[in-house]
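Example record

The entry below shows one chain as it appears in the dataset: sequence first, then structure tokens.
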Amino acid sequence: MQVNKTTKLFQAMVIMSLNMGNLNLEVSTLKNKLATKEKEKAILQEELDKENNFQKKYKHNIEI
């Protein structure tokens, strides 16, 4: 009886360990995706700022 409980406890611990490993992997993947999207956003924002600056210069040259 004691061996059966020990076996069940060990199995439960292994399953929990695997689940935690999978969860950690998933969190890591999501962090990487978030970092990538933040970099893309920064690049797009930089391009938008450049375009806005170009348009301001262009409008300024027309008004003169």
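Notes for this example: The radius of gyration is 28 Å. The chain has one helix and no strands.
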